[in-house]
Amino acid sequence: MHSILFRQSQAGDAEAACVCLTPGWVRDGPHLSSRTGLGGSRRIQRIPPTCFETLDEDGMSKSSSASVSRLFLLNSWTYCAIKPRIFEPRIFDKEATGFGPIFEEEPLDTVYAEDSPENKISMNCRVRANPPAIIKWWLNNWEIKLMEQPDDHYSLVGGNLLITNPDKAKHAGKYVCVAKNVYGTVFSKEAIVKFGYLNQFPTDEREPVNVKEGQGAVLLCSPPSRYPSEVLFRWIYNDFPNFILPDQRRFVSQSTGNLYIAKVEASDVGNYSCFVSSPVIGKSVFSMPIALIPQIEKEEKRYPADIRVKFPKTYALVHQNLTLECFALGK
């Protein structure tokens, strides 16, 4: 914003000098700034001596689009500093209407399933600013040149970054949304894009498990490799979706996926398949069936207690929910 200084002569000359100064060169009080005086004027204009008589009640000049900032006397001359109204929005004065970028939505960490039928990732970024902000995106501390280098994978929809046909080698990493206008620049929090997967179980046949009635049995899940590692383990009994419900005799470890049966009964005979679900990527797989064959025990025997599942040393926050697994065999 420029400040404009009007000088009206005592003798009522036909014209008076108008000097256009930059902010800080005119201040309240009876003196000009000693560091510049009038020596720093940008240009000289000629205005009629009646310029101060054509102001309306609100201090608006009827002959120009400007408002009075201050009036004072200096060396018996009348000075008037005015604010031009040609800048939109106002940046420096108290009546400024603009503001810097403010995030209304920032990108979030995303895990994309490698074999997902939806072949795109959307990284959201919504910003409020006046004037509107320019949105840019960074990947692993490098700017994504959407305008200079057209890309078959990246596109900008509003402020959102759309990644089509994502590729792990190219698109995994840390993304940051950057918003900028004349008031400043803001950076979103980092959003990490990772690629999730859940491999299939091997198709090899599983060995049957023979166990005497009354004894304990363990059916091994041996889950396939996966990311993220957090999955849900269940077991199918004979046919899908007939899932085993854990009870006092049967227990499914959520650490290993193994099925533990404390006391095998004749009714337990059948085929068992380990079922693994990844809630993050929305995928499930199950193993080849394991045949459980109970054998009749002629004489009932007793067995010492044997803890098969132990929980490790664990740390937890106050009020945090925690699950500890423990399973024992014996009779």
Automatic annotation (TrEMBL):
Positions in coiled-coil regions: none
Cellular localisation: Cell membrane
Broad class of where this protein is predominantly found: membrane
GO biological process, one term: axon guidance
Occurrences of domain Ig-like (ranges): 101-194, 202-291
SUPFAM superfamilies given in the database record: Immunoglobulin
Keyword Ligase: no
One Pfam family from the record: Ig_3
GO molecular function: cell-cell adhesion mediator activity
Keywords recorded for this protein, A-Z: Cell adhesion, Cell membrane, Disulfide bond, Glycoprotein, Membrane, Repeat, Signal
GO cellular component, one term: plasma membrane
Protein name: Ig-like domain-containing protein
Organism: Danionella cerebrum
